[in-house]
Predict the structure.
Amino acid sequence: MTAEEFKLDDQQWKALCMIEEECKLDSSYIRKFYKIYCTIDNDESGSVSIGEFMAHFDVYPTDFGRRVFSIMDADLSGQLDFVEFIGSVFNYCSYDSRQLLKYAFDLFDNDESGILDLEEVNKLVEYVYGDQMDDKVRAILGGLDKNKDGTVSFKEFVTYNKNFPIMLFPAFRMQEQIRQKVLGKSFWEKRNYAQKDKDFEDTDATLVDKLQQMSKAQQAGNMDAHLDEMSKDMVVEDIEDADGEGPVAFAGGAEGLQNGTGGGFG
């Protein structure tokens, strides 16, 4: 490999070599990334715009999608050069379900306290859905704060998403669409399995399974029917609340989903 092959200056070349080492990517995979990058760059400008990025990966333009792109755009140019593209896409596609939840959670956890207030959680979900947010999602959000303390810890957030994966489904769907067009689904699944944190294996596997079922239902055009069926089998799970003083119950069921009372914190 040479800098000239990828049309990089010296600084970009050094950055690419660092990515190659840290991500354990050999030259064949880097060349595959570059081929994809050139395909996305429709106007052959040598950089990828947010419009080209969203169009290629068939991502619905939400604030979340735009924020993900802006984080990828390290130099804030409004465009992705190849080094920004390969580094950020590789990281985003490498997240397991818990890490992706943390990524989304951290977008609004500005003080890094590990806690969001209810307004921030609502904004986060609205951020992810954009104008496609429906009544089922609003109902779930209505059941978040059972103990009326006005806050949600990351631990509570993870468990709630496990029971109600529809809450941030578009964020997972976006990752899945990028994975499918960058090296393929099996590549990322094998990588994640090799790196999986065994402490979170059961939780992660359960959530991933639910998300994959939802994705298939969406592609088949029967998402509503799938969610209705899914709500009948919601799990009841206890975890400690944020201050460690007691269990937090998460109850499911079709009635709870419809009424917004099927789950909560505290």
